[in-house]
Design a protein that fits this description.
Blueprint: E1 6-7, H1 10-27, H2 39-54, E2 63-65, E3 73-75, E4 81-82, E5 93-107, E6 116-120, E7 125-131, H3 134-141, E8 153-164, E9 173-186
Parallel strand pairs: 1-4, 7-9
Antiparallel strand pairs: 2-3, 5-6, 5-8, 6-7, 8-9
Length: about 200
């Protein structure tokens, strides 16, 4: 919310929720389950922050400091507003899916638990997912597994939610995706001139 002065759509709330989940996953040790943020409740919280920002007087600032890490400060963007209607957001249906898929990696993460960007071969869609197969991720990030190339394919067991918005309110979306187990990495060993 520091980079924008307005949040209004389900897609923007989804992005904020995914960022929060990634931050929590990176900073909570010995977690029992992956963090999950309820999107509609988050929209209501954002509306509350926006209402507080509207009550700020001109040139008033809000600075949050850490009680444990002295000198760590964060200035809030008091110009930011939430203009969406939380009551009308995320009212579609959600269906959970689990299956084995082949994934091309668009963006990998070399440190931490942040989300990777994939393209699913079976769904022919791009989506972001966190790899929850901890042993594989640690091996990959420690260099014990060769880096994933642009033509390599990961075969993995995945889970995700398909969110179906109300009729006329957008396209189905993949949310809360997880790579539960990396089964194999199929390497493309061909040379460029062979294409």
């Amino acid at each position: 919310m520091a980079e924008t002065n307005e949040t209004k759509s389900e897609e923007q709330v989804e992005s904020i929720a995914a960022d929060i989940e990634s931050t929590l996953a990176d900073n909570i040790e010995d977690k029992i389950a992956d963090p999950y943020i309820d999107r509609q409740n988050l929209a209501h919280v954002l509306k509350g922050f926006s209402s507080a920002n509207e009550k700020m007087k001109p040139r008033e600032n809000v600075i949050i400091t850490s009680g444990q890490e002295l000198g760590q400060k964060c200035s809030l963007n008091t110009s930011w507003r939430f203009t969406g209607n939380p009551k009308n957001m995320f009212r579609g249906s959600t269906e959970c899916q689990e299956h084995r898929d082949k994934l091309s990696v668009k963006v990998s993460v070399n440190e931490g638990n942040s989300v990777w960007s994939f393209r699913s071969h079976s769904l022919n869609k791009r989506f972001c997912a966190r790899i929850t197969h901890k042993e594989w991720l640690e091996s990959y990030q420690n260099g014990l597994i060769q880096a994933i190339g642009p033509k390599d394919v990961i075969e993995a067991d995945i889970s995700y939610d398909i969110y179906m918005p109300p009729k006329g309110k957008g396209q189905p979306q993949i949310r809360n995706a997880r790579v539960k187990e990396v089964v194999n990495v199929h390497r493309d060993n061909g040379h460029q001139y062979e294409l």
